Amino acid sequence: MSLLSLFAAALLQAAAPTPEAMNGAWSVDLSTDPAQPYVKAMHLTLAADGTVSGDFYDSTIEAGRWKAQNGRVCVSFRTTDGVGPYHTAACLTGDRVEGQTWAEQRSFVFVWNATRGEPTP
Q1: pTM for this entry
Q2: In the chain, at which end, N or C, are there fewer CB atoms within 10 A of the end residue's CB?
Q3: Half-sphere exposure of 78 (CA within 13 A, CB side)
Q4: 3-state DSSP call for residue 47?
């Protein structure tokens, strides 16, 4: 491997976010109409064993896992509304989280973005 290749690989590795960068409170924008904001909280804790705990949309995260790979940190987890499961997958992209949630019992997939911090009322 050339010196340039090693340097490029080291830069990519140094720029990759750590799991800790995804920990904490997030304000999730679930708006379908920009004129009607709809924001909910998400709290994430990524543990060293690869598990994710916290809450999303007022529901406790169940069976959460995370992975750091290819320069990204991503999470997948399940929540419920008491009727059926919601399956969520999301990745840290710069200073925000981009995700999608599939509600099998409600027959929809929702694409959303989140920014750091608690939602403002």
Answers
A1: 0.84
A2: C
A3: 8
A4: coil
